[in-house]
């Protein structure tokens, strides 16, 4: 009899084990839903799977009566485009600021305490100030994401830059590189895969802020739809939307990882 | 030729801790100085002073009569035990980098014919260190020994006057080490380098060097171990001819170092 | 926790009520903190738990999901959330109607017609949306003439300060805040459709039927609070502070609210035939915007019972206006 | 002339440099505020420092007329108590689940995909369900924090546990330890300082969820107050509250670090 | 006494990669086997098979005639190059841990008189490895050599029949190594251990062992380097008396290994 800490499940067992919790959750849901439906046929809190399916059908496969659009896809597209823009800007800011501060001590000195302070401010609490600076259009939604995730990315990149082996920077100097050349050819290319890591870590927060932003003022988007239909408690729409967001979050994370593995094989085999 | 490098009364301390103490010596052009001594005695610190990443607390270092530059520069090459090559560049790019820095001030990157040129030079150096067939490989695809060969090629492409080696073979297998010794000796002779090499392996020190330094504390205060620093306690001229002499020295220093390192 | 209290409610002696911060519902806060509700609950041998929920929609959702027996909400939300969700609800107390509390405000332009082509920021599918639809209708326009941007009520004041926003429809105290800004013209308000936006206390019909004492205690307490509120500046100051402003601010909101301080007025309002007509408008609007559920084939899909008669499907009555408890208050039999 | 990447500011210069951005921000604020006030004396968006001071005075130093309480301090106390409870529960869950899954492969198999999925669900989108499961009392607020941060802590602790050198576990086995003993005496004590790290990293998110929870169902707390006065756009109250939250977040982080340094000196000198 | 440990036709492969190939040998009780060989040739893998953290792909290992336990157990102690001691326990606690595991099944922690007892035993072992004065220090406060001493004490407190050492002194200074050699030899003799020690330092292998194994591939397919595994290519009985013989072997193996490691 092996010790518990030494026993690993075989591959088929592992797959079986990993499915079980999901099956259990679905079962629990179905039972709870059935119980509520038995009491109130029109209960909206826990819709049956048929209701959810018909809601998906309505949102994703039939054009909306009012606008003729496939709402689900339009929401997805708007949200993803906001997410991508917001995260890209945040990544760009994170890269520039984090790299500059990480590589140049004279920049780190004034920036570090400021970044710490900014990262601690809850952006949702100062929305009005954000509105006057960025207005209320697409920009403000994107900027909320940027504000939500860029402090994290900046801090992360700053730290990763400072973690690069000192030896490399010394070596680059003995090869005659000046500061700019070293940043461009030694530090930057090594930080890029780490930037992807940082982006992956911050995606959850980005989704959070995206949904919050779409709840503030919007005419489409996954977060918009969730908050809109919340007004009449259409959980049959909310639940598949949430599941979809979860799936999208998972997919973006996975894609970024594959991308990074593909472009930066040296980074992934280094570890 | 005699006073290529001069150290005058060099001391180095970090806060209260004295690491190196009043070192005065001269090094001729083309010498191969090997440095041995207990761990933490200041060998790497000494190399850092020569390299320019640290400043001496007092005293002066001159090269060819001029005060040493206070920053690493391309006249002093270095190979560390680890992290000497860039993981994101393949072998050829690693070697070409030094040329690109020199010939493209703005981007540090060459294109077209200039790039071709740089690659040719890089390939010649890869050849010299026996890595011709691995030019396209990334460091993570190279063995430890190949990585150190690459690091040497990368340093030498800049034609440095001084080559600093900080335990370059510390992480390598004994078998591979032997090849590396031959390579280093070859490169030293072919390029008329002045070499400083730190090693933990006394035999290596004797085998490679034209001069061996033992770093140690001359004085020791058991109640304040930081009070006194190391200096060169043995300075032994070596040459391949008088192997017996060398062997005696080796044994003498061995017992000496043993005492040092356990006190 | 997923099972709601039995659909066919039995007698119980513990009840819960939720309310959210709004001028017409602050009396619940006062009733709770002053002990008036406890006093009336004691009188009928029951216990009433009063819970404040900041997020209005959340409070109605929680009520609809079965977490509360009673909840304060407007007539329209009562139709579109609990009634459409199969939770048969009765308007136990009709406390007031909006008489200017809800308004359409333009940055540029002085008449409602100027709104054509503008984006209007409002809480979509709320009474603001309804007000906008009614207003547009009144001048021969329709929703197609504007575009609607869903905007959270919490952010609408700040949103108005940005140049992106040129028109809003919202409620008090947000209306007063916005009107205090330099460029803000009120072009339409709920006083022009009096009696259509009604603030009520909804109670689950089955709970009420099984437990008339719950209805009596709430009604009794409400009108005691009303009396105190009407007569005491101190009470109004208290309510003002609890809603995050002061007495002055609160009085300003009251000014555009038609409070039914006396049960007589409330009873008369509920009994009037206009109520049925109002609910018809509301049902039309809700149906047009898909708020009555997928199954709804027309605006009468959900029956609405008023003293003046039932609107819509009499076999699917889910919303009832029942003046009987308020009548007891008139008669002094509580 | 040294390379930029080699030049470090001296200590006094560094302090001066780090103060500059804050001074600049305050100055920008004052000027913007002044400009808005010049246009509209009643402007509430960017209150003057005097207005802010008087709001602080009112909230923190004078008892409320209605309840006789010092609102600011009561809000602080309520929020902090929720935060501490929520984060403690999350840390506890994270420790137990993360440690069990990290140490015992048979537990990791079913749990890892589930944890990944749960960590990707945006809790804000399924608020109604959460409130129904946990009610609307103190519990729901605390649970929202727990749900918001525990997936992160679980994943982090799981990873840290698996990162402990394999050699240590082997060594412990050669010393005759059984699984339970090894978890108790070798893994747990080494994970505790890492738990503090994880908690520190998750504090920002915890504040976010606390504020969100208080905005929806609460009668006191820093988030509640901000939400309450937001409809009157009382920035004179919101801004000092936000600054206070930022300060509290900074202080809790700092305290945790000091605590960790004090209890686990071996952990901090290891790195 | 002769067949204390028996290996019969042991092979080990990871997927397609054959690491060890058909090894058959016997080890007598009380032998000190030193293992040398190129990096990656499977020395650590071999120790892991003896330790029980890996299972042989084919073949059998018996100890005193019984099949080896498939998990690490207290009859086989180990010291790695790093991470052999627990950073969160001080020296005394590190050594006492093995006793606590044995005597407190539930908590793995002793109290009162039992604890006192365990501490006494631990202190005796600290004394034996020369760490008496550092009993209260944590590993991070100890030098590399002291940490390895501690790891030895910690392993020996369980009175293992077999002691496995995987480059235990690989990260230490030459000076310090010498002390460690003496310590290991002392502990080996005093505790009648059967020792397997991997080392990169041939001289160390000759100096310490009573038997030296060289691991290498007997066959090599240049086009499929993973096809063949290592086995024991030299199995040299050593003893302190015939030093000349040892010296000749050393030279022979050195040239041999050189070839191995560069092909
Ligand atoms: N930046 C620094 N600040 C403080 N002390 C330092 C610093 N750098 C080195 N030291 C100390 O100086 C002493 C010498 O360090 P150095 O790295 O030069 O030793 P070394 O001889 O190279 O040792 P090793 O053989 O282990 O590499 C050590 O005691 C070290 O702790
Ligand atoms: N778990 C594993 N999966 C696949 N390959 C492995 C695994 N463990 C070891 N190997 C491979 O087996 C070979 C032998 O590894 P091992 O660690 O035993 O070598 P070693 O002789 O101890 O080398 P070193 O001297 O560098 O410690 C190596 O090529 C290694 O890549
Ligand atoms: Mg060194
Ligand atoms: Mg090994």
| Global shape of chain B | globular
User: Based on CA inertia axes, which overall geometry of chain C fits?
Assistant: globular
Major sheet characteristics of chain B: 6 strands, mixed
The total strand number of chain C stands at 14
How would you classify the quaternary structure?
heteropentamer
Beta-strand fraction estimate of chain C: 15-25%
Sheet of most strands of chain C: 9 strands, mixed
Bound molecules: adenosine-5'-triphosphate, magnesium ion
CATH secondary-structure class of the largest domain in chain B: Alpha Beta
Straight-line distance between termini of chain B: 40 Å
Low-confidence stretches of chain C: 1-7
- Mean pLDDT of chain C, as a whole number? 90
What gap, in angstroms, lies between the N and C termini of chain C?
Answer: 34 Å
Radius of gyration of chain C: 19 Å
Q: How many helices of chain B does DSSP assign?
A: 7
The CATH architecture of the largest domain in chain B is 3-Layer(aba) Sandwich
Number of strands of chain B: 10
- Listing every helix as H and every strand as E from the N terminus to the C terminus, the arrangement of chain B reads EEEHEEEHHHEHEHEEH
Specify the CATH homologous superfamily of the largest domain in chain B. P-loop containing nucleotide triphosphate hydrolases
Largest interface: A-D, 63 and 64 residues
In short:
The complex is a heteropentamer, with 2 copies of chain A (271 residues), 2 copies of chain B (263 residues) and 1 copy of chain C (334 residues). Chain B has helices at 43-51, 91-103, 112-128, 144-156, 174-191, 202-208, 243-262, and strands at 5-14, 17-27, 32-37, 58-63, 66-67, 76-79, 162-166, 194-198, 211-217, 230-237.
Q: Overview of this structure, please?
A:
The complex is a heteropentamer, with two copies of chain A (271 residues), two copies of chain B (263 residues) and one copy of chain C (334 residues). Chain A has 271 residues and is an all-alpha fold. Chain A has a single domain, classed as MetI-like (MetI-like fold). Helix content of chain A is 80%, strand content 1%. Chain A has eleven helices and one strand. In chain A, 48% of the residues are buried. Chain B is α/β, with parallel strands linked by helices. Chain B folds into two domains: 1-75 and 160-263, P-loop containing nucleotide triphosphate hydrolases (Rossmann fold, 3-Layer(aba) Sandwich), CATH 3.40.50.300; 84-159, no CATH class. In chain B, 37% of the residues lie in helices and 24% in strands. In chain B, strand 7 (162-166), helix 5 (174-191) and strand 8 (194-198) form a beta-alpha-beta unit. In chain B, helix 2 (91-103) runs parallel beside helix 4 and helix 3 crosses helix 4. With 334 residues, chain C is of the alpha/beta class. In chain C, 40% of the residues lie in helices and 21% in strands. Chain C is built from 14 helices and 14 strands. In chain C, the strands form two sheets. In chain C, strands 1, 2, 3, 4, 10, 11, 12, 13 and 14 form a nine-stranded mixed sheet that branches. A five-stranded mixed sheet of chain C has the order 7-6-8-5-9. In chain C, helix 2 (36-43) packs antiparallel against helix 9, helix 4 packs across helix 13 and helix 12 runs antiparallel to helix 14. The longest helix of chain C has 20 residues, at 212-231. The radius of gyration of chain C is 19 Å and the shape is globular. Chains in contact: A-B, A-C, A-D, B-E, C-D, D-E. Strand 1 (217-218) of chain A pairs antiparallel with strand 7 (147-151) of chain C. The complex binds adenosine-5'-triphosphate (ATP) (2 copies) and magnesium ion (MG) (2 copies). One adenosine-5'-triphosphate is lined by residues 14, 17, 19, 37, 39-45 of chain B. One magnesium ion binds at residues 43-44, 166 of chain E.
